[in-house]
Structure formats: structure tokens, C-alpha cells
Amino acid sequence: MTAVLSRPRRPGGGRRRPGRMRGLWDASPLTYITLVAALALSIFPIYWMIIVATRGNEVVGAVPPPMTPGGNFGDNVGRLFDNPDAYFAKGLVNSAIVSSVVTISTVFFASLAGFAFAKLRFRGKNALLLVIIATMMIPVQMGIIPLYMIMVELGWQNRLQAVIVPFLVTGFGVFMMRQYADQAVPDELIEAARVDGCTTFGLYWRVVLPALRPAAGVLGLFTFMQTWNEFMWPLAVLNPENPTVQLSINNLANAYFKDYTLMFAGTTLAILPLLIVFVLFGRQIIGGIMEGAIKA
Fold this sequence. Notes:
Blueprint: H1 29-53, H2 73-82, H3 88-119, H4 125-135, H5 144-154, H6 161-164, H7 171-184, H8 187-195, H9 200-211, H10 213-228, H11 232-237, H12 245-253, H13 260-295
């Protein structure tokens, strides 16, 4: 006869209950109140902009202000595109071209340079990296005059090249991708790819770039938003007849009569591409993080 050994029962007489997870649901009511207040303060200006864009100018100074959208958004958008001083359609196209080219170029060259600084060995690597970091310490305003003189010498005034070429790569992008590549790409993976006969560019394209996808998504998002919202440099180098979208809105603001419905309708249309890019790059960021977590 075999004796069956059983585990001693707990005083409670049941199974061990898993501990209650502590996290977001354990936040205090004050935390929720603070978050809701911060969210309301952040969203209200955008919501009020949309309200004015769907109504007429009479609601701008109305007390109390209306809180529901009107039905004039289509008419306001039509008047916006027909406005002879705004060149809004051309501004949207120019901003889309400039922002897309600058974003793709910055992500490509910054990730390529970051990979080189993080994983390749060559003379003067540290000195070159210090030079790149030093470019981040110079205010943009100090470089406008010499950069404008260069554009004049090249004959690029009032051309999109003038707002594309100077920003094809940034020191911040190179430094960011270098730091991420140094941690995200193991040296053993690089050596294994070398043993398999992978070239340097093939190593970057097939091994390093997929690992840098989360950082590339963040850099692409920031670059697109910054380029789309850039105002000072396009104002200096482009004419009102060949504007970006920010200059188009500025042309409406500088008119003799300020039509706030047109200004807010243009601003509403101007933020739509940013929301689309945010959704697309946000999915890439989350997908890259989840993929890295699964592999780990």
C-alpha cells in the first residue's frame, strides 16, 4: 500500500489567490482629476478652432461662445481655396513634398550614419561625432543669414530646393540613431552577418535597419512635424506666390481684413496630415517595440 502525501492545506482552506495587480487602477482620484483637466486644457483650443472653422466670424467674440459645430465648413473651405492671396492648395502640395523628402532623407542618412558611428571602426570616429554634436549647439537663427547667402549664390531663391537641401540630415537624428543602434544591435549579430558574407550596406539594410525601426519611427514623426510646421526659414527664402502651408495661413493673417473663419479652416486642414502621419508612425513604433519584445 502506497501512502499518498498531500500538501498541507492553508488556514483559509483554498487555493492561493493571485495578488491584485497594482498599476493604473490604483491611482488616486486626484490623479484622474489632474489628467482630465490637463486633457481638457490641451484639447479645448483645437476644439474651439474647429468650431470657428465651421461657423462665421460673428462667433469669435460671442459671449457665451457656442460649443457645437456649425454647417459652414464646406463654404469656408471653398472660400479658402478660392482666396487669391493664400495660394492654399499650392501651399499644401509644397509642404507635403518638402516634409516627405526631408523625413525620408533624414531617417535614411541618420540611421546609416548612426550605424557607422555605433558599430564600425574608422579613424576620427569620435572627433566626427563631436563635430555633429556641436552642430546641435548652434541656434538656428544664427545660421539664417549665411544660409540665405548660399541660397542666393546657388540661385535657389523661391525654389523648394532651398527648404529641402539644408535639412536632409540633422545632427540630432544622427546622435539619436547612434545611441539606439549601440544598444539595440548586438555585436554578435554583426559578426554573424559578416561571417555569412554580408556587405557593409547589406548589413545595414538587412540587419541594422529592421532593428532600428522603433527609433526610425520616432525620428520620422518628429522630423515630419517639425518640417511641416517650419515657418521662419520658408518665410525668408520663399515668395508668397510659392508658399508652404504655414506661409499660406500667414498670408491670411496679414490681410487687411482678418477672416478668422478662413484662418481656422486652413489651420484645421493643415493639422490633418499631421494626424495621419502620427497614426501611421505610431503603428510602426508600437509594432517595432512589440516585435523586439517577442524576439527577446
